[in-house]
Structures are given as C-alpha cells and as structure tokens.
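The following record pairs a protein chain with its ligand, dioxothiomolybdenum(VI) ion.
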Amino acid sequence: MSETMIGAGPKRVDGRLKVTGQAPYTSDNHLPNMAYAYGVFSTIAKGEIINIDLNEAINSPGVIDIFYHDHFPRLYRSPASMAQRNRVDETRTPFEDNKVYYAGQFVALVVANTFEQARAAAYKVKVDYRRDSDTLANLDQGVKAHGTQPGGNHHSRGDEASAFERAPVKIDAIYTTPVETHNPMEMHATVASWEGDRLTMYEATQGVVQHRGAISKMLGISPSNVEVRSPFIGSGFGAKLFAWPHSVATAAVARQVGRPVQMVVPRQQMFTTTGHRAETRQHLRLSADSNGKITSMLHDSISSNSYTGNYVEVCGRVTKSLYSCPNVTVDHAFTQINRGTPTSMRAPGAAPGLFALESAIDELALAAGMDPVDFRLANYAERDESMDLPFSGNHIVEATQKGAEKFGWYQRNPAVGSMRDGNEIIGYGVAACNWEAYKQPCDARVSLRADGTAFVSCAAQDIGTGTYTVIAQAVSELTGLPLESITVKLGDTSYPDAPLAGGSWTTSTVLPAVAQATRSAIDQLKSFASGGEGDFGGLSADDITFENAQLSANGRRVPYADVLAAQRLSSADGEASTEGMSDDFSFRSFGVHFVEVRWDPGISRMRVSRVVSAIDVGRVINSMTAANQVEGAVVMGLGMANFEAAEYDARNAMPVNNNYAEYLVPVHADQPPEVDVILLDYPDYNLNEYGARGLGEIGITGMAAAVANAVYHATGKRIRDLPLTLEKLMA
Ligand code: MOS
C-alpha cells in the first residue's frame, strides 16, 4: 500500500454497491406510512391563477390533501448566501401567491397514498389562468422589452477601445449559446420525514450542509433540527447544488399531513423548475498587432435570467486571464424573461464563455495569418494579469505542445476543406480549456478502530466522481491499511461539515482535511500507547513511530489494533478543520482540446472522430477516475457542440422539447471512437499538501469551440451559434 496509493488507479470502492443497485438514491427510500406528492405545473408562462377547481381531484382514490397558494404552510425566503451555506438560486418560495412567472412552475401539489394515485389526481386538478400577452420567451425578447441589468464581475485594464481602433488585425463578432439542461440519470427527488420538530430529509443534492441551511431558513426552523442525507446521487452537473421548490414544498407538506412524503420531479419538469444553463449572447471584439500578439480584448455578455431568482452566467471569467493582453474589458449583463431560474451547469460561465472566446481566438489567428496553435502559444499569459498575481502552477504551453504532437496537429493542411478521406472532408480544430481551482474550509473525522479498520466521516459528497475512492486512497497511504479495511461515510449532515460538491473543489478540499484528521488519530494512538502499560508504556509519544498499521519503538513493532485492544479502547480518533486557500496566487487549471471532425457533404453527416485532451490539473490522485472525469466532460462538451438546445415557443414561452426524445444528448453512437486524455501530473503544492487541483469541470470548457473550429477547417463555415446542427452546416 502506502505511498504508491496516490496516483494509482484503484477501482471505485463504491463500484460494487453501484452496479448491484445497493447504493440507494433518494427515491429508493420508502419509509413506513409514507405518502407521495405529485405536482401540478403551470401551463402558462406569465399571468395569474384565477381559480383552482379541486372537486374531481380531491375525490380521486387515495388523495390525502391538495395544496396550492391559498392552502399552503407558511414559508420564508432564504437569504440565499453561499457563505452562510443557505444559497438557493430560485429565491421565490413555492406557492407564495397566485402569480405565474414561468411554464412548469408549481401551481398545486397533490399528496396521496401512492405515487400513481397522486399523479392521477394531479391530472384532474383544473386551473384557470389569466394569461398575460407580454410573455417573454427568450433573451432577444427580454432585451427588446426592457433591456438589461448589470451582472457584475466587471473587469477592465488598459484602454480596449482605442487599442482596437488602431490595431491592424481585428475581429468583431457575436456568439450565442442556447439553454442547455442538466440531464442526470437520477431524477431530482426528496423524502421528508418529521418526528416532532425534527426533520429528516433524503435529498438528491450535491451538498447536504448547504441544503440543510437553505431548508431550515425557508421553513423557519433551527438547522440543528434538520438532518439531510444524500449518500449517493446519480450525478447532478450543478442542478443539484442548491434547493429547488419541490424540496422545501415536500418538507412543508410532510409536516402538514403528519406522514413522511416522497416527491420525484418528473423529467419534463427537470427542464423547467430545477435550473438550466442560461441562454447567452456574447460580443467578442479582439485585435492583434502585425506580429500576432493580442493587443485588445472585449468580452461583453448577456445571459437570460428569470423573475424568480438572481443568476448571472459569468461568461468572461476566463477571458481576463488566459491570454496576455494589456487592454481588456469584460462585462456581464442579464435580462429577465419568463423561464425557470437558471443555475450553475458544469463549468458555469466558462463553458459558454470559452465557446465564444476560443472561437474568436481562432478567427483572430486566421486573420493574423497564423497557425491557431502557434498563435495561442505566442499569447498565453505567464501570470494572471487580471489579479496581478502569479499562477499557482501553469503548464498550458507543455499541454499544448504534448497535445499537438499526440494529435498530429502539424500534419494538417491548413487550407479549408483540403483534407479528404473518401467521401469525407476532415477538419482539425483546437481550443484551450480553463477552470478555476479552489480549496474550501472543511471538517473531517477519522477513527482507527480496535478491529484494525479505519472509519472516515465527512459531510462532503461523492456525486459519482470518485470521492469515496480518493479518500480511501489517502487514508490507506497514511495508515498502511488496505482499501477494504477503510470505511468512508459521506453525504450526511450528522458528519463533520463540508462544502457542497461544486466548483471542482471536492478532492482538493476534502483530502487535506481527511489527512489532518488521520494524523491526529495517529497522534492519539501514540499517546494512548505511551500512557498505557503495554509495550510502549512510559515512552514519549514522539519516540513512537507509526507505519504499515503498526506502532514501533526500540525495535518492537505491534499492530495498532493490538495496542488498542490491550487497553480495552475502542478507537483512536482525530478531527480536523482545515482552512480555505491562500490569496497569494491565482489558482487555475489549464488544458487544450484537439478535435478531428469528419463531414460527409453527400449525406450531410458530421461527426467528431478523434479527440486528444491534454489537461494540467496538478497532481493526479486516481489515474482512472481522473481520466473518466475528462472523458465524460469531453462527451458532454460534444453534446454542447452538436446537439443540446432547450427550445421555447417564441409566442408563449412554453418549453417545446422538454423530454429525452427531442432534447438531444450524445448517445453511444455519437461517442468519438478515440478520446485520448493526457494528464500532466505536476503537483500544485501552493493549493494543498496533495498538490491536487480539481478536474470535474475543466474538460467541458473549450470543447464546443474546438469542434466549431474543426468544422470551419472542414467546411469553411464559421458557425457562431450553438449547437452546430446539420441545418446550419447545409445552409
Ligand atoms: Mo458544478 S456546476 O459547481 O456542479
């Protein structure tokens, strides 16, 4: 074991539970005497409920009660603070009043003895609406109707406008990205159970502690009376970071009916009431000098927001620091429309932002007459010019060179449409990827037990990414215990506080806390040994060493389990409470995607045939789960590039393709035959003792631009509006 554990690629320790169906998801919890809730969802996007007719529904079999705005327990709005751990993105609580702000909003909630009974009755609830005619269905309509509001995150240095004015090489273009929806396989779901004043929730959430904070605020009860459990989730991609209306509604009605209640959000409403990636319109204006050095960058973006929340898509979050440039302006604005509240979706801001930026950089490189790879190499920033700080670690030059070599970039013929293979035209594209690295404050507890096992607990989450496994690896390395002797417990507010699983920060945050707790348990073990009567009694704890699950001193080695047993002690325990990251550096991860597309104009078929992604993420903790993260993100990026778009009827803001038949995500047939992930393995000890940065999100950034740039190389069509559909290619 020991030191070889970090960087190795052991299989997921929870893998067997997952594939045998023993890892319970929220909706697997069927408590005694449980009732089931089903929503009635608005069929208009803006207006008012003028009447609700419950007559038929209330007499439907099994119905316990039907809730709506005039018959709903009192709820409060959460302050929605990330720092106070009570953030929600939809700040309006459900059933506040009779107003409708988006299609798919909860207008009633049926509670019945079974799921089927609740659903059948929900279909019988008759709602009369007064529909407003000035419904705003999309970003353009919002801007036209009432303009934009400032979205913050402004950055400015130098004088972009005058530098652009005098530059010899320039591009100026608008890029747009549509609404995308998170489509985790596991549905959003809540189970709420009250015992007196105490609430236990099973929740499909990426953060039990944040969820507890938000729910207790909205119910107006003490967080100490709320426990949230989410040991396993079927992914979330950001949609499960913060509480949505169904969750607080379920908790409220469970108290009212005096029974545990389960609610699963139907897939269609996961397109309306549990968040989505906002629609964006981005203005990129870039210039370069005659030597191919970037001289100015403007990135102005507008994103769609709702009337029920306050979410801004920060498209320019990477633009201000990836390239060296003296004159930069980055701005954000939003416009409110009649749609559910947007939220973070894998690499929020950066995913749409880098589609625009890295497409524009490609256009600028070509305008400058330079190879797009050489152009990037000539312009990457060596320090973060927006923060005026050094990067904690940045190997993007090496990533670009290694990726280019592996991909065979320089064998390409740069002329558009010049590379053919039979009926297919081949295109090569490149784009940089980038995402912040974080480390958050975190607590953890570790027990070394008398039976020779270790027990780790932490209220962090494993959202399917391998957190259980990397924690077990870290404890194994420090203790010498084999993985199977280490039990890791996550996703429960009764464990030590931890941040939600977001921002790609879980590994870099949780491992240092677990390591510190492990060392503290080992220290307690040594003090037990030195204070006892046994082999080490009377020695100073400092003279005792711990290695391979054994204590040793003066040539004597004893398994730690025997030391505990000899003193009739159950365990040696350690707790840790670690701090966030330093502010001496700009912490980011870096990488590059190389993409090959094949376009067959005869049958209008376009597919991504080859991807090489070289990513600089600090030290790799588990080579298998790490590569999995990037591969998954590449496929999701391919979906963003070619398929995903939630459509809304421009006349009434009703969702059009809110189902798996019509909202396209990549299926097996769409996977590129080759996805080659190169993980540069340079530890970043400025971030944490493991040198690990996160990598859940970076892999999706830049991917859509790399595809779009390859499509341009193949076809000569510069498509600035995602997704890159066949209609656009044939136009
Ligand atoms: Mo991520 S969008 O912070 O789950």
